[in-house]
From TrEMBL:
Its EC number is 4.1.1.-. Belongs to the UbiD family. Residues 346-456 form the 3-octaprenyl-4-hydroxybenzoate carboxy-lyase-like C-terminal domain. Gene3D superfamilies: UbiD C-terminal domain-like (3.40.1670.10). This is UbiD family decarboxylase. Keywords: Lyase. Signal peptide: none annotated. One of its GO terms (molecular function) is lyase activity.
C-alpha cells in the first residue's frame, strides 16, 4: 500500500484498495446543481441521505471555476481507517480515535521550506476568486458560495503557537466572511494578535493529505492552545508535514495543498448575509440556522498546484459527521483516561445519525456489580464536561457500538426506558439543534438543557441470562 503525502497519493491509495472513484464528465453547475447530483447519487428508498455512506465523485467539468471538484473523501469509516493506517499495522480492536490519540502523544513538528513554485494569482474581489474556484452554493438562498473544507492554518510568529481548523468561508457579492467559534483556538489567536495591534495572517488550504483533516478534528483536552495539529499528522505519516511562507503575508501554508487562499483576519465583523432574515447553508445536523455576524476575511491571493483539485463536503451528511464524531470520540477517550476509567469503557462511537455529536455510544466492560452504577455516574459526568454531547447510550461489550441497528437491539432488549434513562441537571446546549432551543420547551433563556444517559447494559449479576444466541 502507498503512504499518502497529499490528496493525489491518497486517491491513488483508495484506488489500490479497490474503492471506486466515479468521474462525472458532463458539465454541471456548482450553483446548487452539483450538490443535488451528489445527494441523488446515493439516495435510495429506505435509506437516509443524512447518515448513509457517501460515494466518491469527481466532477470534471464544473461550469464555473477552473478545477474539478472532489466530494465524498471521508464518506465512510473504512476510508478514514485506511488514511490513518494505510499498511494495516493495527488490529481492529484499536479504534480510529485511539490511533489519532497515539499520534497526538508523539507529534512530529512541521518542516518550513523556502518559497514553493506554484501558480500564483493576486486577487482581491470575491468575483475573481469565484471565476477561478468552483466553490459550491448549497441552496439557492444561501448567503453565497461557501468553502467547507478549507483548512485555516494560523501561526503566531512571536510565540510559535499554531492552529489548524476548518470553518465555513462564504463569498458574498463584495466580501468574504469566516464563521469562527468564539471559544475556539483560532479566535484565541486572533484575539491575541488584535491585543497587540496586529492583524492575523492566515492561509486557507484546500485539498490535503487526509491525515491533516483528521488530525484537525482534535480539540481540548487532546490538544492545548498553540499545539500544532500538523505535528499529529506528521506522526501519523512518520514524516514532518512541509509548510512554506505565504506569498502575500507573513503566514504559512501547507506546501502540498492543491489550492491556497491567503488573507488577513482582524476585528471587523459583518452579517453573514445581506438578507435581514437570512439563513446559513445547511448545518451539520441537517437544519438551517439564522445567519449572524461573521469575521471579515481580507483576501489577498490564491495559489494552486498544476492540475489542482478542489475538495469539498456535502454540508450535512455522513462525511462531516464522521469528522466531527472523530474529534468527539478522542475528547471522550482522553477524559476517560484522565479519570482512570479507560479499562471500564473500551470503545466510543459518535454516530452519524447524531451528526457526530448528539448520539454517542459508550461500550463498557463490567467486572463487578459495583460497575452497574459506576458506568452511569461516569457517563453523566461526561455530559457536563463535553458540551456537544446530548444523548449517551451505554452498551455491553457484545454489542457493536458503531451499528445503529445493534444499538437499537440492545435498547429494545436490555433497557426499560421508564427506569434506565438518567436525566442530567441543566447543562449548556447548542443552538444548532432546534430541540435545544427555548422555543421547543425544556430549556431556559440561557441555553441550558437537560441531557440524558440511556443504560442499555445488562446488570452484572444477570449477565448469564442475557448471553446472545449467535
Amino acid at each position: 500500500m502507498l503512504l499518502p503525502n497529499d490528496l493525489r497519493s491518497a486517491l491513488a491509495l483508495l484506488r489500490q484498495a479497490g474503492d471506486e472513484i466515479t468521474p462525472v464528465e458532463r458539465s454541471i453547475s456548482p450553483e446548487v446543481e452539483m450538490i443535488e447530483d451528489f445527494l441523488d447519487a446515493y439516495r435510495q428508498p429506505g435509506g437516509s441521505w443524512f447518515a448513509d455512506e457517501q460515494p466518491l465523485r469527481l466532477y470534471r467539468r464544473p461550469t464555473r471555476g477552473e478545477f474539478p471538484v472532489l466530494m465524498g473523501m471521508f464518506g465512510n469509516r473504512r476510508r478514514c481507517r485506511l488514511f490513518l493506517d494505510p499498511f494495516g499495522r493495527y488490529s481492529a480492536d484499536i479504534s480510529n480515535a485511539q490511533l489519532l490519540l497515539q499520534a497526538a502523544s508523539r507529534p512530529i513538528a512541521p518542516r518550513l521550506l523556502g518559497g514553493e513554485e506554484r501558480n500564483f494569482h493576486n486577487v482581491r474581489k470575491p468575483a475573481e476568486i469565484l471565476a477561478l474556484l468552483p466553490i459550491l452554493r448549497y441552496l439557492q438562498d444561501d448567503p453565497g458560495p461557501t468553502v467547507t473544507l478549507g483548512l485555516i492554518y494560523a501561526h503566531d510568529n512571536r510565540t510559535g503557537a499554531a492552529n489548524c481548523s476548518y470553518h465555513r468561508i462564504t463569498f458574498k457579492e463584495d466580501s468574504a466572511v469566516v464563521a469562527i467559534d468564539s471559544r475556539g483556538h483560532l479566535q484565541h489567536m486572533l484575539s491575541t494578535h488584535l491585543a497587540r495591534g496586529e492583524l492575523l495572517p492566515i492561509s486557507v488550504n484546500i485539498g490535503l493529505d487526509p491525515a491533516i483533516y483528521l488530525a484537525s478534528t482534535l480539540t481540548r483536552p487532546c490538544l492545548s492552545y498553540g499545539s500544532d495539529e500538523l505535528g499529529v499528522a506528521g506522526a501519523l505519516r512518520g514524516n514532518a508535514v512541509e509548510i512554506a511562507p505565504c506569498h502575500a503575508n507573513t503566514g504559512r501554508y501547507i506546501a502540498h495543498a492543491e489550492i491556497v487562499i491567503e488573507g488577513m483576519l482582524g476585528a471587523e465583523k459583518e452579517p453573514e448575509t445581506a438578507e435581514v432574515a437570512g439563513f446559513s447553508l445547511p448545518e451539520y445536523l441537517g437544519y438551517r440556522s439564522p445567519c449572524g455576524m461573521a469575521t471579515t476575511l481580507q483576501v489577498q491571493a490564491v495559489s494552486h498546484r498544476a492540475g489542482a483539485i478542489y475538495q469539498t463536503l456535502s454540508g450535512p451528511g455522513v462525511e462531516q459527521s464522521i469528522l466531527l464524531g472523530l474529534g468527539q470520540e478522542c475528547s471522550l477517550l482522553a477524559r476517560l483516561k484522565t479519570e482512570g476509567l479507560e479499562r471500564l469503557f473500551c470503545r466510543v462511537a459518535a454516530l452519524p445519525s447524531g451528526g457526530g455529536h448528539l448520539l454517542t455510544v459508550l461500550q463498557v466492560v463490567k467486572r463487578a456489580c459495583s460497575d452497574d452504577l459506576r458506568v452511569i455516574d461516569a457517563a453523566k459526568r461526561l455530559l457536563g464536561e463535553v458540551p456537544s454531547l446530548k444523548n449517551v447510550l451505554l452498551v455491553d461489550e457484545d454489542v457493536d457500538p458503531y451499528s445503529e441497528r445493534d444499538v437499537l437491539w440492545a435498547m429494545s432488549t436490555r433497557a426499560r426506558l421508564e427506569r434506565d434513562i438518567h436525566v442530567s441537571a441543566l447543562l449548556p446546549g447548542t443552538s444548532l439543534d432546534p430541540s435545544q432551543l427555548p422555543l421547543y420547551g425544556g430549556s431556559d433563556a440561557n441555553g441550558l438543557v437537560n441531557k440524558c444517559v440511556v443504560d442499555c447494559t445488562v446488570p452484572f449479576s444477570s449477565r448469564r441470562r442475557f448471553q446472545r444466541a449467535f
